[in-house]
Amino acid sequence: MTTLLAAFVLGTPDPPALADFYRALLGWEEAEREAAWVRLRSPGEERPGLSFQLETDHVRPVWPQTPGSQQMQAHLDIQVDDLEGETRRACALGATVEEHQPQKDVRVLRDPHGHLFCLFLPGA
């Protein structure tokens, strides 16, 4: 049996808008676009990709987690070589920095639709 991770999918009320944010953040290419589905891929790579599907009832997770609240089910880890510079760039694209930061060489941010992601330095 052969298996291959094809994509990581984020639910969002506006797939094209969130895909545009991550396309700019990651420098990835758009492979497919519809109103309810967008798929990005790394330049020169077909898989794995990052996809965005329509979820009209998307609820932002709470960070840090608290009992009885919407829990974070997954998040993206994005390695960078300049943590402060890439944090500023992500914020200029529409991300926000979370108040709670659990590690020195990692920044927890939220994308414009509320998904959490981390920027981190090599070795962190």
TrEMBL record:
Q: Which residues form the VOC domain?
A: 4-124
Q: Which InterPro entries match?
A: Glyas_Bleomycin-R_OHBP_Dase, Glyoxalase_6, VOC_core
Instruction: Give the species this sequence originates from.
Output: Streptomyces gulbargensis
The record's annotation in Pfam families points to: Glyoxalase_6 (PF18029)
Q: What is this protein called?
A: VOC family protein
